Every structure is written in C-alpha cells, then in structure tokens.
Amino acid sequence: MAEAADELSTPLGQNTVGRTRRFRLPFTAMQALAVLLGLVLVGFAGVALFNDNPLGGEPMARVTLRNPPPAATDDKHAPAGQTAEPAVKSVAKAPAAASDAKTVTIIDGSSGKRQDVVIGAGDPREKADVDSPPVATTGIDPRLLEKSRYGMIPMVADGLKPFTVYAAEADRAKAARMPVVAIVVAGLGVGAAKTTDAIMKLPPAVTLAFTPYGADPGKLAERARTQRHEILLQIPMEPFDYPDNDPGPQTLLTTLSSEQNLDRLYWHLSRLQGYAGIANFMGARFVATDPVMQPIVREAAKRGLSFFDDGSTPRSVAQTLSAGQSLPFAKADFAIDAVPTSAEIDRALVKLETIAKERGTAVGVASALPVSIERLGAWLKTLDSKGIMLVPLTTAMLKSKSG
C-alpha cells in the first residue's frame, strides 16, 4: 500500500525509486552519557546522606569470635537427679607483646636541653612471636631491684648485694692457695652471633661484659647467666677523641653535671639485669677525670656493685676512688688481642701466665673476635697442667682485696 501511494503521488513520466528509512534514537550519545553520570552522582549522594556509616567508608576487617565449646559434663559421677556442672578450665592469656623500641633522653652538655630519641627497635623480623613464652630471668632476686624512670636498676637490700648474689661459683679456698687468672670478654650484646660464640664456646669461669646497646641485650645476658657465666655491664664513657670517636647514646661525659651523668647511668643500669658489676666502655678521658668519676664510683658502691677498669689508660683514677668507697675493683693487666693474630694472642697469654705466677693474680681482657675465642679456648684447657686456676672476675677481686 505504501508503495502504491508513492506511485500515485509521483509526477507522470518519472520512475519511483525505493527509499529505506533508518531508525533514529530520540537522543544523542553525549546526552545518554550525561544522564548516566547524573544517575551515578545522585546515587552517591543518596548513599552519603541516608546511609548510617560513622566510619565514613574507612576500610575495616571483621573477625568472628567463637565461644569455646562447653566442657563435657561428667554425668556418671553426678548425684541422682542432678546434672553435673561443667568443669571450669583456666586459660592462660598470652602476655602483651612489648615493643623493642626504647626512648632515650639525651641531655645536651652545654645547655642541659633534653631530647627524646627512640633507639633499639631492631629488625621487626627478630621480634619474638606473641605466643612464645617470655624469657625467664633465671636467678634474679627481685629484692635487689629498684624502680627508676627508665626501668629496674640494682640496689642493696636485706644485707644482700648484687656483687655477691650474682658472682659466679668458684672454689675460693683453692684460689687463695694458687695462682689465678681471670678473663673478661667485653663488647658483647651487639652482634648476636659473636655473643653466642663467647657464651657457648668459653668455659663458665670466663666473665662476660655486655654493652647496653643492641636490640635485646637483656636476652643475651640472660642466656649467658643460664650457662653460668658471670656478667658485667659496660658503661659508655667519654674517650679523648670524643665526639669523633663516639661510644653511643647516653655516653657519660666530662662536660655534664654529676646529676646529668647519674641520669644517664640509670638508663644504662636498666638495660639488663643480674650483673655483678660495671665496667668502662671506652672512656679514657672520663676515667682519668676525678670530679666526674667520683659520683659514678660512689653510686656503684651504694648499689652493691663492683668496678672493672679495662686498663685503656694508665691515668685512670678508678682504683683510688674504688678503694675510698670499699668498692670491689679489678683492672686488666692488658688486652689479650690488642694485635688480633694467633701468634700475638698466644704470646700475650704466655705473658699473662707469668704475671699470675709472679703476683698471684692476673686479669686479661679480650674482644669476641673469632680468633680470640679460638685461641682462648685452646689455652684455657692447658691451665690445670701449668698449676694455674681460671676464676671468675669476682673471685680475682676478692683475692686481690684479701691479699
């Protein structure tokens, strides 16, 4: 019909041509896109206005906590007509994970200005699992601990002193009759591998000295005590070339007041527990300066500790000040591995034998270098045959004092 209508309306003499009519949308593509974006905006505004979400879309995680199943009742042993009460079991709670990081208050020597610095956080991969048991403090007497603003520090209580309580066992009657040698391996606590070598490869009578630094010096010191080593705490002190040669944070300085140095001392004392005494860590200038050493020696005596001088300077006043405070004291005759080669270490050990036989007591200090540990281990096995006794440092101190 449509085709016939076209032929009627076409002028005579002209042929009609068939036309194809295309379907067209009532709007353009841009109009459709604008409408779509408008709907999205309207929807977003509706969610923001009418959805009650106090977190404002902040990501959150949901954890399902299930109550433990009730304990089985023992109906067989319940009286007739009664239902047995479920057994109550105590569940031990895991201790809260403590951060390895500690805040250190650094006091400016000239102005007294305080600055808090976080140190000792360590590698997060080294942190203990929260489900692992806490490290036991074997043999630590809580009566000998006093709370400071940095943590627990040693003190004298009930007539007991850390020097006597934490001294390693030794046959002191035998030591009084024969030449003795004490060996102190120092600089431990920083570097778990070398510290562990010293703890495990050297006999218990070797005294181990720990610095206050490292991720967890207390844990390594506790391991040493578990292996029956006597331990010391090294206190960083100012050397002659400070600050070019810097022992570390909270170093005791000759430019600080006695109150400032004592405050730093308390920080160091709180870093680990169970030590029989303190020792200088570097500090050639500090230990040679009487006014700044006096309060430190007096505080060590007050807290029932001893003092070990590593012999780094002949000008040290530590021995004289210790005698004035009746503080147990020892000074290293020399560093065994000042030249860290096998030949030189062996030569130094022979010299230590000679001093022990001539004077009755000899004290050597060494670092935890692999060559030092290896040569010490071999030499210590020969002492019995030479008529020399290896003793902890506290035993050597007591023998020197009685002599």
Put the structure in a nutshell:
This is Divergent polysaccharide deacetylase family protein. This protein has 403 residues and is of the alpha/beta class. The chain is built from 13 helices and 13 strands.
Characterization of the model:
The chain is of the alpha/beta class. It has a domain at 149-402: TIM Barrel (Alpha-Beta Barrel). It is 33% helix and 15% strand. Strands 5, 6, 7, 8, 9, 10, 11, 12 and 13 form a 9-stranded parallel beta sheet that branches. The protein has a two-stranded antiparallel ribbon with strand order 1-2. Helix 6 (217-226) links the parallel strand 6 (207-210) and strand 7. The longest helix is centred in the first third of the chain and has 22 residues, at 29-50. The protein starts with a helix and ends with a helix.
Ranges where pLDDT stays below 50 over 5 or more residues in a row are 54-59, 68-101, 117-136
Name given to the CATH homologous superfamily of the domain at 149-402? Glycoside hydrolase/deacetylase
The average pLDDT value, as a whole number, equals: 81
What would CATH call the class of the domain at 149-402? Answer: Alpha Beta
Oligomer: single chain
User: What is the helical fraction, as a range of percent?
Assistant: 25-40%
Count of individual beta strands: 13
What letter string, H or E per element, gives the SSE order? HHEEEEHHEHEHEHEHHEHEEHEHEH
